[in-house]
Amino acid sequence: MTATARAIATVILSASLSAGAMPAFADTRAVVELFTSQGCSSCPPADELLAEYAARDDVLALSFPVDYWDYLGWKDTLASHENTERQRAYATARGDRQVYTPQVIVNGVEHMVGSSKAKIDNAIATMDGALSVPITMTAGSDATTVTIGAANNSTPDKGMIWLAMYDDPVTVPIGRGENTGKSITYTNVVRKLRPIAMWKGEEMTVELPKSELVHADVSRCAVILQTELPDGLPGPILGAAAIDYPAM
């Protein structure tokens, strides 16, 4: 774990929730990651569909704008190379090299065209119960306490805990490229994604200081527990929870 990760994460093996704290929803059924681009003419329907999933309490829907279409005439104003690297890491882990937009990955496992609601719904249904490690986020006056449950008999006993920081819907007018003249709304755009602690199968808590969570360009945060494959590649997601900053 990096020094930055150590600085923001204080790991405690027994949970202690502050009085008056406000818990986030913890019944997440699926994590839906959309890799999208402002320079992709096929992406707007997928961006709209992601907003539908984001409105559901049982789905953590996140948008990861990528930068590899910037050469087509329009530089994506929300994209980051880190998002591109995450998508490529998934492809490497699967061994299929399928990197495209719009691409959705459900629970870190199945991928499909991001505008295919039927396939996404089917993936969520067939993997129901895959997020078997319970996670809660509880906001206190000075910090948010993340509680990670213990592994069960069918769950891997090792994983990385990720902190995803994302924002409210943002509408972007596109001035050039394949979407010239359109104004497209992007939902739950991930601005920062970083590891905060390792999970070793036992119940644990992580304290996230409020000062490290509140930033001008983000309004929400989520915690994702994900299996880490050899070479640090992303594997199946084991659990997730999210919280809005107004609750903090």
TrEMBL record:
<keyword id="KW-0732">Signal</keyword>
<feature type="signal peptide">
    <location>
        <begin position="1"/>
        <end position="26"/>
    </location>
</feature>
<protein>
    <recommendedName>
        <fullName>DUF1223 domain-containing protein</fullName>
    </recommendedName>
</protein>
<dbReference type="Pfam" id="PF06764">
    <property type="entry name" value="DUF1223"/>
</dbReference>
<dbReference type="InterPro" id="IPR010634">
    <property type="entry name" value="DUF1223"/>
</dbReference>
<dbReference type="InterPro" id="IPR036249">
    <property type="entry name" value="Thioredoxin-like_sf"/>
</dbReference>
